[in-house]
């Protein structure tokens, strides 16, 4: 749900940016757009990590890599 809202906000900010002439408003829209893009990236990364942890083979491989890395230190 959060990803959907962020995508809608991104589309809206881009449309407003295309029309806005005032430099201060454009700067604010660019900041809002960048913030929404960053947040969407984080949401998608978290979702991807959760999906991977549901996969037992991936989870086992990840666990193995993590434990090997800790032993090397």
Would you write up a description of this structure?
Helices cover about 90% and strands about 0% of the residues. The protein is an all-alpha fold and about 70 residues long. The chain has one domain. Helix 1 (about 1-20) runs antiparallel to helix 2. The radius of gyration is 19 Å and the shape is elongated. It starts with a helix and ends with a helix. Keywords: Coiled coil.
List its salient traits.
elongated, 0% strand, mainly alpha, 3 helices, 73 residues
Brief overview:
The protein has 73 residues and is mainly α. It has helices spanning 2-19, 23-54, 56-72.
Present the secondary structure layout.
Layout: H1 2-19, H2 23-54, H3 56-72
Helix pairs in contact: 1-2
Principal-axis shape: elongated
- Measured on Cα atoms, how large is the radius of gyration? 19 Å
Order of helices and strands: HHH
| SS-derived structural category | mainly alpha
Mean pLDDT: 84
Count of individual helical segments: 3
Beta fraction of the residues?
Answer: under 5%
- Report the count of strand segments: 0
Q: Unreliable stretches, pLDDT < 50, 5 or more residues?
A: none
Distance between the termini: 41 Å
Largest sheet: none
How helical, in percent, are the residues? over 70%
Give the number of domains. 1
Coiled coil: 19-46
Region (Disordered): 48-73
Biased composition (Basic and acidic residues): 48-57
Keywords: Coiled coil
């Amino acid at each position: 749900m959060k990803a959907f809202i962020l995508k809608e906000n991104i589309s809206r900010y881009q449309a407003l940016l295309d029309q806005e002439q005032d430099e201060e408003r454009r700067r604010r829209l660019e900041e809002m757009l960048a913030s929404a893009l960053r947040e969407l990236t984080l949401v998608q990364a978290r979702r991807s990590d959760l999906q991977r942890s549901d996969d037992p083979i991936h989870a086992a491989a990840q666990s193995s890599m993590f434990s090997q890395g800790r032993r090397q230190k």
